[in-house]
């Protein structure tokens, strides 16, 4: 009985899903599918020429690069993008001394309360404060940027596929719209206030090229500030902000794996040795 | 219970003698996973996965309790509290990555455990109750995992909660009020987050309880084995300890190496980048996908795109639930006198060339965007899925002629050189 | 995996304790090593599990407090927060200093002179934790108009502990003087606590 009901139910579901398949196949066969421009011209993110120092299982931070990246963030990105989950004290991990971090904090203003009047006012930041947002709230951020809120950058390299390379490619990938695109998709156009960037999902990004000219930032360590260099530096910095424990994690992983390998080999030897004594007495398990 | 030749626990010293009289816990352990539990001697490595599932359950409970010490279930701060765990809490990143990847490994291990049961028809009498409890555990796991994924309050958390509770809307009449009741509001918000946290903390202990029942039920008939022939005499079995404790220890080592590789070197590979964006009720991500372990069921849900008497959405929901509930009925759908797929030529073909590839296809399609050709492929795969369990399995179990079975486990082991029956995992050497 | 050692007559031998030469002992050694490795691994896991409950980085970062006492006048106190606990800073009047120094130190429950409690050169600035050493209540006396107790210092209302003008316990159940945190003067008017 159960089997009969089961067969009927099974055939029922099969029938309905095959109906859906047939109608779907009919639609697919009769309707022309048009390829979209985003599908054809979107490009996958790629790494900087020399890669990132933190790539791979043995990667390490390049602290001077992170410091350069912080400089790019501070002088360029911070005008629009927040860094909500990063505390100013965290900068010590980039190789700055406690005093330097304190001085850096003093250059930043965060919302506070006047201790005498209780009125809201800006005060000097302390190292324990988090990086202040450029806008007081989301509405202000949206209003100042044509309806689009500049995303928080703390986690951006984890919030995008292949994030470090994505940030690098996006920042260094602004270019004029290719002529082939126009020929292939005459309807496609870059709207006012948009910029063509093949690394952005929809090909049109609302952010004006933030790194527009070589030498836009003057690096303290004398590194030549090409667009590619600045993009790579800030991508490295944002990798750190997204995953500050990245290197600690990898360097903890190796001893753990090494120990596990050792313990597993021991376990295998022990298992082999214990099982060596496990032989059936003889073939006649029969008791008939 | 158990076999007459099972070793009896002998308390060795004053303390264990005292305990044995007052609270025979050592005896209990001895009989459950010690030398007092005789186990078929021919288990392959596929039989390691039950113990591994138990390990990952405990791992999830331990890391979960730790994370709950630092997490805050409030939409204002939930996302930030997870970042606090990742950045400031000592070893917080390790706890969180172990918990997130632990869920994936738990499911991976349980899937292998389930499909081992399907191939060796471990659900057949006298082990129906073990199987029913197992499917119950799997359903509880799905509920727990879903609610856990909502807690970080990222974009996928929010939209996953929206979509899955939206499924209940498909139920005629009571659907919409039911969804509102489940969420405690009209969209996922504080009320939903708090109750999900509460239940996410509770359900693992319910799972643990079911696992204890699952193991209890197992100890009544004893473990199944790759031949499917029941234990006939003492030479068919080995004591669980030290034989299977040693084997499980080795298996655990291998599993931990794989697990730690993910935790330390690929911690976000099984996750979705969008969940590192804080939940935004006003903007839906381009492709909403569940965690990978739900892909096959998500593919079945989306395969129903045609209104036939009932709306397509309701068909999808019914089919998704039916695709798991059908497992409950397997002991009565499969009437073959033989258990093991090794001795069932027709069953074996449908298993390896039907069910397994179809599951693989459903995994791929469930994670792919809802566009052609994935939808059409998943429709065919869904059709096969239901045909397999509800039509093919009952019919072939009636018509197929099984291969001759070995007389006993011992005989199968002794002949394992001649017959490739047990494969390379025929453990006890001859 | 068929190894062909031994014969089919061997029975499962789980004792491993038969003294039949090096072979058995070596095999024992492997088992002991494997179990020990599992034990070491288990112990290693305990470390992060314990350490996660210790103060996190953001809590530790707030473990120093900087105070500006330039506006603090003699006889006045300020109440600040150090590690989420109250801290009292009082600029003592000459009369209070005198009262503190007049006490016979050996008669005190927790002997200490005012000079030992304050910093050299800043003998009129009393910095103590506002946490009663009895059971952790916040004593009164730091704010204008509060009960300063019988000895003009601080008074804990929970169980009636009286502290004098050097924050020493004089009467009541508290076992020791109010605790003095680690602090230093970075300038004449700035204190860094912690």
For the terminal residues of chain B, how far apart are their CA atoms? 30 Å
Strand content of chain C: 15-25%
Helical element count of chain B?
16
Please estimate the helix content of chain B: 55-70%
Oligomer: heterotrimer
Q: What is the overall shape of chain C?
A: elongated
SSE ordering of chain B: HHEHHHHHHHEHHHHHHH
Query: How many strand units of chain C?
Result: 9
Q: How would you write the strand order of the largest sheet of chain C?
A: 1-9-8
Overall residue-averaged pLDDT value of chain C: 83
What structural category do the secondary elements of chain C indicate? alpha+beta
Identify the overall geometry of chain B. globular
What low-confidence regions of chain C span 5 or more consecutive residues with pLDDT below 50? 1-20
- What structural category arises from helix and sheet content of chain B? mainly alpha
Report the uncertain regions of chain B: 418-430
**Strand-residue fraction of chain B?**
under 5%
Number of strands of chain B: 2
C-alpha end-to-end distance of chain C: 65 Å
Features:
heterotrimer; A: about 290 residues; mainly alpha; two-stranded antiparallel ribbon; 9 helices; 4 strands; disordered C terminus; C: about 190 residues; alpha+beta; 3-stranded antiparallel β-sheet; about 25% helix; elongated; disordered N terminus
Concise summary:
Chain A is mainly alpha-helical.
Question: Which helices and strands, and how do they pair?
Answer:
The complex is a heterotrimer of chains A (288), B (430) and C (194).
Chain A: H1 2-30, H2 37-41, H3 63-75, H4 98-106, E1 109-113, E2 120-124, H5 138-144, H6 163-172, H7 179-184, E3 195-196, E4 204-205, H8 227-242, H9 246-275
Antiparallel strand pairs in A: 1-2, 3-4
Helix pairs in contact in A: 3-8, 6-8
Chain B: H1 14-22, H2 25-33, E1 38-40, H3 49-68, H4 78-87, H5 92-119, H6 128-150, H7 155-168, H8 175-183, H9 190-219, E2 237-239, H10 240-265, H11 295-303, H12 312-328, H13 330-333, H14 345-367, H15 374-399, H16 409-414
Antiparallel strand pairs in B: 1-2
Helix pairs in contact in B: 3-5, 3-9, 3-10, 4-5, 5-6, 5-10, 6-7, 6-9, 6-12, 7-8, 11-12, 11-14, 11-15, 14-15
Chain C: H1 22-51, H2 57-61, E1 65-68, E2 77-82, E3 85-91, H3 94-101, H4 114-117, E4 125-129, E5 152-156, E6 161-164, E7 169-171, E8 183-187, E9 190-193
Antiparallel strand pairs in C: 1-9, 2-3, 3-4, 5-6, 6-7, 8-9
